[in-house]
Amino acid sequence: MWTKRAHWLLYGAAWGLMGLYYATWDAVAYNLAFLGVLPMNLCQNAIWGLEGLLLMAVARRFPITAFDRRSLPAWIINLGASLLLTCVGLASAWLLSVAFMEPSSRAWIFRNLGSSLRKFTLMYFHSTLLLMWAVQGAYHGFRLYREMRRQELEKAQLESRLAEARNQNLVAQFQPHFLFNALNSISSLVHADPEAADRMIARLGDLLRISLETGPGQEVSLERELALVDSYLAIEKVRFQDRLEVQVEVPAALARARVPRFVLQPLVENAIRHGIAPRARSGRINIRAAAAGDQLALEVRDDGAGFDGTREGIGLRNTRERLRMLYHDQQSFEIFSLPDKGTVIILRIPLRTS
Question: Buried b vs exposed e over 257-270: b needs ≥16 C-beta within 10 Å?
């Protein structure tokens, strides 16, 4: 990052180089000693440098933002200021050139004051005006560039906040959807098996406590996500008892891998609801995690009724959308299924650890 001091040094160095250039030009054009004309040219360019600061102050007060009628007053003020300061700068530069002359040459200049000043002005007016315009153009260009970058940053921040809000909304949809299903399961056991219903209510309380402890962030550790899934499965095992078998295969090295919050629970719920529940016989669910290069692969597999692709509910839709929002093209979400053979859901995301 450029500091204010660095900007001042760069600005002064630019005008110093201009002074060196004009001193070299005078020495060659008029066959003069370089060291003799260098102080005069440095002083002249110092004056133009100070005028450049005045022009930047005018540009800051009356910025040019477009080529339209509304910007016409700013154009007039900026161009008028450049013309005025060009004339003032030429007069000052002429006086400096006179001050550095030999006494005999200075006396001749004062005897021919009008013609000398007019000749000096005609020789250097265009180049000085171009210098003033260059200062103005550079300042306006830098200001417009900085404003464009600021707007781009604000736009990116706004898009990020909107994406985060939408993601939070998708996460929020999981909870009432899951609660509705859990309470529906509890209600079906209240009269048939009160003790089982009581155990489900206790497990539901544990699950809600863990979900609240997870916090508002977009990602959690895989270990934390599996703890939430385990609490959910404890509820379902009360309902299915021996009909539900669960196997979890997650290497210890991946326990701290970062995964989206509530990413596995809707997949497991989908496997139970559409794969295991419709059948009378028992079923198995496998939850696996594996590292594949710089990606983490999560898999939820069941041996149930299969998935025909026509009943993708809130859980799967929201999971697919959240992955796209969080990881863009660095993620994938695939479903493989055969009737009466089961369903496999595989998602891949960047492998990151906390």
Answer: bbbbbbbbbbbbbb
Tokens read off for 252: 């210890």
Tell me which amino acid residue 91 is. Answer: A
Domain spanning 190-350, CATH class: alpha beta
Residues near 350 by Cβ (< 8 Å), separated by ≥ 6? 294, 295, 296, 327, 330, 331
pTM of the complete model: 0.52
Cα gap 53→58, rounded to integer Å: 9
Q: Is the pLDDT of residue 256 over 90?
A: yes
* Long-range CB pairs of 205-210, under 8 A, 24+ apart, other chains included: 206/231, 206/234, 207/231, 207/232, 207/234, 207/235
| pLDDT of 266 strictly over 60 | yes
Q: What are the residue ranges spanned by the domains of the chain?
A: 4-156, 190-350
Alpha-carbon dihedral sign for residues 201, 203, 206, 210: negative
**Residue 146's pLDDT band (cuts 50, 70, 90):** confident
What are the structure tokens assigned to 103, written together? 């006494």
